[in-house]
Design a protein that fits this description.
Layout (H helix, E strand, L loop, with lengths): L1 E2 L2 E2 L4 H4 L5 H8 L8 H6 L1 H10 L11 H11 L7
Antiparallel strand pairs: 1-2
The structure holds protoporphyrin IX containing FE.
The site of protoporphyrin IX containing FE has 17 residues, from helix 2 and helix 4.
Amino acid sequence: MEQNGICLDPTWACISKYFTPKDISCMARYGLALDQCASVLENAGEIYERVLSGNMPKGGTRWTPEMCANFKAWMETPNPCA
Ligand code: HEM
């Protein structure tokens, strides 16, 4: 499913597109690999809180409520990195 060009399936193939090259390069400096499913899953709870509040992406485009909801749905699937 897509809305305004944003994929809304609770899959890593979809979620991985939410992270921009700037997000990935910036957070790599802080030891968070936003281009690796296992790393995103390990930090999913805090990532969710920060994108929901708009704290992150810092200086970037705020995630839509639909993207946040899809991220939550993804992290709650039985095997998110399958
Ligand atoms: C566990 C979750 C996260 C933590 C603890 C975290 C922490 C930080 C910290 C400490 C910085 C340095 C700037 C500052 O001091 O505020 C930063 C920068 C940044 N973060 Fe995060 N972040 C998290 C998740 C994310 C996510 C999910 C995204 C993207 C969707 C993101 C995108 C960015 C970007 C783009 C910058 C660089 C800002 C700039 O220097 O222009 N971060 N983050």
